[in-house]
Amino acid sequence: MWDKPALLNWVANLLYAISMVVMLYAVVYVVVHLPIFPLREVKVDGELHHVSREQVKLIVAKHLKGNFFTLDLINARDAFEKLPWARSVSVRRRWPDRLEVVIEEHQALARWGSTALVNKQGELFHAASGSDLPVFYGPDNGVIEVASQYDSLNKVLRSAHLEVATLALTPRRAWQVTTTNGIVLELGRVEMQVRLEKFANIYSSTLVGLNKKITYVDLRYPSGFAVRRPTAVVNPEKEKVASVDSAKAKQGDTKAIKSEVVKKRTGTVT
């Protein structure tokens, strides 16, 4: 080996190259980790109605560790995605000292029973909301199916000045709608929109004046639908009071007649 100058030159050049790479890496490592590249600004963009400034400050203080170069962007994104109303998050560095965060919030469409909220993409998420939202029910694998049917069914009901309060999908894939004024509509498993359109048309022209008396409509008949009204419930106590009042009224009428007769006989003038 020592008598081979070419090989010695090659080894020397290799060692020189390795040493330069190591030295360059050390310099870069030191420079990057110096406190001269701190993150001075975190800019959050997006249509934010539920993500608050306090939540952002908490994430910045708790999860954003390092300077402009050493900050772990994946961990930073994951931290922001843990916000209840955050649907998706993107983060990127902006030279020389800024981190840009774009948050897409969930847009709540309905409640999923009493356990979660449903966004407009048919995804479940867990967050608090004080909005007056319709309620969806269905099997665990039916969230997207229920959410996709809601808009078309609610649009039909709005033509009759009604709104969906609850929309339910049974395990047998049958549909049931309850309106905001308490009417339960059985739609069945096929031609739900066609059946609902027939009901909406007749409701607008005929049944709208009876909306307080209708409680249940079965639309699963091929050539029509069945309407149920609540039966009148008689309160025994009220009926008893009414009977007593009626008896008193009759007794009072009898006394008045007798008094009138006496007055006529005695010539009393009133």
UniProtKB/TrEMBL annotation:
Topology of the protein relative to the lipid bilayer: Single-pass type II membrane protein
UniProt cross-references to Gene3D superfamilies, sorted A to Z: Cell division protein FtsQ/DivIB (3.40.50.11690), membrane protein fhac (3.10.20.310)
A Gene Ontology BP annotation from the UniProt entry: cell septum assembly
Keyword check for Signal: no
Keyword Ion transport in annotation: no
UniProt keywords, alphabetically: Cell cycle, Cell division, Cell inner membrane, Cell membrane, Membrane, Transmembrane, Transmembrane helix
Localization per record: Cell inner membrane; Membrane
Pfam families registered for this protein in UniProt: FtsQ_DivIB_C (PF03799), POTRA_1 (PF08478)
UniProt cross-references to PROSITE patterns, sorted A to Z: POTRA
Annotated POTRA domain residues: 37-106
TM regions (residue ranges): 12-32
Superkingdom of the organism of origin: Bacteria
Any single Gene Ontology cellular-component annotation: cell division site
Chief place of localization: membrane
InterPro entries reported in the protein's UniProt record: Cell_div_FtsQ/DivIB_C, FtsQ, FtsQ_C_sf, POTRA, POTRA_FtsQ_type
Family under the similarity heading: Belongs to the FtsQ/DivIB family. FtsQ subfamily.
Oligomeric and partner information: Part of a complex composed of FtsB, FtsL and FtsQ.
Function in brief: Essential cell division protein. May link together the upstream cell division proteins, which are predominantly cytoplasmic, with the downstream cell division proteins, which are predominantly periplasmic. May control correct divisome assembly.
Name of this protein: Cell division protein FtsQ
